[in-house]
Write the structure tokens for this entry.
Amino acid sequence: MTPTEIQPIVLNKLDADPKNVRKTYAPDSVESLAASIGSVGILQNLVVRPGKKGRFFVSAGGRRLAALKLLQERGAIPADHPVNCQMRDEDSAVEVSLAENVMREAMHPLDEFEAFKALSDQGKSPDHIASRFGVTENLVKRRLALAKTAPELRELFRSGEIELSQLAAFTVVDDHARQLEVWNNLGQWSRHSATIRRMLLAEQTTTDTPRFAVVGEAAYLEAGGILRKDLFDESGSGVIESPDILEALFNKEVDAAKAKLLAEGWAWVEFFETLPDWYYGSVRVYPTETELLPEDQAALEGLEAELENLDFEAATLDPQEREQRHAALHEQIEQLDRKTRVYSEADYLAAGAFLTISNFGKFRIERGMMSRGPKDDSAEAEQNEHEDQDEGTNDAIDAKPAKSAGLDELSFSLVEDLSARKTAALRVALANNPDVALVTVVHAMLLRVGYSYAREQSAVQVSVTPEYLKGSISDYDDYAPVVEFANMWENLGHAIPGNPSDLWDWLIAKTTDELLSLLAAAAAKGVNVVEKKFTDRGQAFEHGKVLSQALALDMADWFTPTAENFFKRVSKDQIATAIQEAIGDDEAARAGKMKKGDAAAYAETLFKDRRWLPPQLRALAPQEPAC
């Protein structure tokens, strides 16, 4: 049947058609459409069929009808508002409704982003666009940000080669060249949105820094700091555009905290961004525990009750007011709590305090320290200074490096990184080898109970005490052994009982093979061959080599040197040494004519498929059988 002529019908004579195949409309969708109709009118006619007593059923256009009724309820249009309609008979109602809902093709998201950008280019503000289309201002800002990414990336999104989450990650910077550089430099399996965002922000100061947490967003903005929010991060993170202001505010907070500690009577106060490794072996004095006076105890209980009530009232309070009250209560509680730990006058005269930042962006104080620590980090400081000088020079590196360029002498941080990678890979290998895991656990147990001073000769901390690797591996979230072991334990976590008291009964019913698999997974979590700067676990590291040999672990399966994870972290001479060792003098000479950054990037291309490893990751040489 061919459509009839278009004719206007007043709104209060239109009803939803029970034969309309679409029965459900999201309230937000109706709200957005009402805003659009209020802005530009109805762009598509309703399709109706005759009802009873001069009324009409809307067979196609139910959402438009709901939006019109919403506008009428709000007084935006009268009840007799004329609506252009196309007349059909009852027999075709279902067919027409189905055709409209099934045959239409949704607009590609990129077309929508670019349409919003076109409106913005006309001078329309995000809040104006939002009001015209019944959406939030933040949604409009997100659409505009996506439309401003590099054209090449947008076309990849249009063709389905980039996901929306990946495209959204590129919005954290406006530099198209930088966006494309990151995309092209990442391997196919590394192009996760989190990795893209991390690479783009590598040289930026972000709100994730503990310094920003100490200062606070309100104080930073009040001082004139500029903050560019990540529109797609629900936590509200962003990029600090005024690092000088942040630095000044942070230094002011540090100075105030140090002044308070000096006012307590300490001889000195030292600030560390993070506590140095030598702190854990430092000598300190400890306070004498004492009871609070009755009035102080009563005040403490009152403050704790007020803090508990504040948590209950959280939903009714302004977030900033709640945070201020929360901080003030904690400060008062801390002052009373310190009265239970009393230092002597001699302690104050001889000792000092360390001030640092906790993982939660709060000041952490270590009182009673007897030493400020080493004046410098000697060898590592000297090496870092030398490498900084290398980075700024254009001198070519020698084709035949000196003995000091040997790969056995790497920086402490790189040795820690590499050994943490080996730890992660060992965990995966041990978890998949119950036979070796059984030997490993029995070995560790006997060292503890059968010998007086031999417990450190095992690489497994059978307590079990997991060593957390996140701070040691530079690309922790993307490192394959870390991901695989996390997945393994996630699956195991779903299998074991949720209540620890049920664990014994669950285990006692398992077969020997099942128990061995569980033992391997648990033992693997205790593997620790991470070589940190200050450590006395040398024998454990040697056992780690033996364990690697027993598991036939080949770190070339888990590690390929790149500019980021290795070559930029060694000296230029060491880059040449590695190239010379793995490839030859000619390529080493070619790299020798480059700046360090270029040499590192060039080395990455040379080592891509060579399975070369730095000495710290190589397996033990096989021993000759005894005659």
Q: What stands out?
A: The CA atoms of residues 211 and 250 lie 6 Å apart. Confidence is low (pLDDT under 50) at residues 375-384, 390-404, 449-455. The chain has four domains: 6-103, 141-233, 246-369, 412-569.
